[in-house]
Write a structure and sequence with these properties.
Elements: E1 3-5, H1 17-28, H2 36-42, E2 50-52, H3 66-75, E3 79-87, H4 93-109, E4 114-117, E5 121-128, E6 133-137, E7 145-148, E8 159-168, H5 173-189, E9 200-202, H6 204-216, H7 221-245, H8 252-263, H9 266-270, E10 273-275, E11 281-283, H10 288-314, H11 319-322
Helix pairs in contact: 2-7, 5-10, 6-10, 7-8, 8-10
Length: about 325
């Protein structure tokens, strides 16, 4: 009976929970060096903005099909990754569950943790065969949670997801930054990432959903506050990221300046929040008109920044998107 505990994995809730988890796992394993905002920027995760019509809390993590969203993100770090997930109601789930338990244990044996859906993402930092459990961090409490092997993947949502990481190859920094801009353009211009469901909007359209939800009333107060906090946090990350990499691509300084201008307005976004009678925070009702105006201004600034990204991208070859595989736009499964 084996037992492993990776003491260096230290997840802190700060960014999107996926970025928090990946940063904790990769830095502990020596697979990424740098601040969290750099990881958020290079993976393109900071550019993801999704809003449900009713402003539900799930908006923050419902930015698309996770495999399709996370694979190019991790690829842009030059990392090998293996993931699996799906719906726990599928009759084949127990087989995938047992297989995932094995490959997560093997990754931990190699000194690399795993990203795991709790719900919201956390990190698997250890296991104990005698008790048949994984140790999982959610970033909210100091002590790890316990997940039985038999309960792996089961949670309050219909979905399960787990991801591990392997070796790394060196990428040209300018190429990695360029690809992150292309991922940002794709997110901005894709209105719905979870079709046929159109209750969730992404990118440019997410601003319209956020404003309409606030103005209509009857929205989820906890969700609205969470969406706003996430937006403020990740826009800070984008501003820091572009500030640090602007020298790598001609013209990127213009976009960095636009996000720097947006960052200067984020305190005004924070001022729209107030304490909730139930605990936590909410958007102050009397500040909704001001918040809607701020969102329109932010959308205009981001539209201009994305236009800069497009111009930079257009100057450079893009084999990933210019070459159509013989099986079409989608890879075979």
């Amino acid at each position: 009976m084996a037992r492993v505990m990776l003491d260096r994995v230290d997840m802190t809730r700060q960014s999107k929970s996926y970025v928090d988890s990946v940063h904790a796992v990769l830095t502990a394993a020596g697979l990424f060096e740098g601040p969290k905002y750099m990881l958020a920027g290079l993976t393109g995760m900071a550019f993801k903005f999704t809003v449900h019509r009713k402003l539900l809390p799930l908006s923050v993590s419902a930015y698309g099909q996770w495999g399709n969203e996370h694979a190019p993100a991790i690829e842009n770090l030059g990392l090998l990754t293996v993931w699996d997930g799906g719906r726990t109601r599928h009759p084949t789930f127990p087989h995938y569950q047992r297989d995932a338990v094995d490959w997560v244990r093997q990754s931990l044996d190699a000194g690399v943790g795993a990203v795991y859906w709790l719900p919201e993402f956390g990190t698997i930092c250890g296991y104990d065969d005698e008790d048949g459990v994984f140790y999982v961090q959610d970033g909210r409490q100091p002590e790890p949670l316990i997940v039985l092997y038999d309960n792996f993947g089961l949670n309050a949502t219909p979905f399960w997801y787990c991801q591990i990481f392997g070796g790394r190859v060196a990428l040209d920094p300018a190429e990695a930054v360029l690809e992150s801009l292309r991922l940002a353009v794709r997110d901005w211009e894709t209105p719905h990432k979870t079709l046929p469901d159109t209750e969730l909007a992404s990118g440019r359209l997410a601003f319209a959903y956020f404003i309409a939800g606030l103005q209509a009333g009857g929205y989820d107060e906890r969700g609205a506050d969470y969406i706003l906090r996430d937006y403020v946090q990740v826009r800070e990350e984008i501003a820091d990221y572009l500030r640090d990499v602007r020298h790598l691509l001609p013209g990127l300084g213009e976009a960095a300046a636009l996000y720097g201008e947006l960052r200067g307005r984020l305190d005004a976004f924070r001022d729209c929040r107030t304490a909730s009678p139930e605990g936590g925070g909410r958007i102050a009702p009397d500040r909704i008109p001001a918040l809607c105006a701020l969102l329109r201004e932010a959308e205009a600034l981001e539209e201009r920044a994305v236009a800069v990204f497009r111009r930079i991208s257009a100057r450079c070859p893009d084999p990933k998107r210019a070459t159509l595989p013989r099986w079409g736009e989608l890879t075979p499964r």
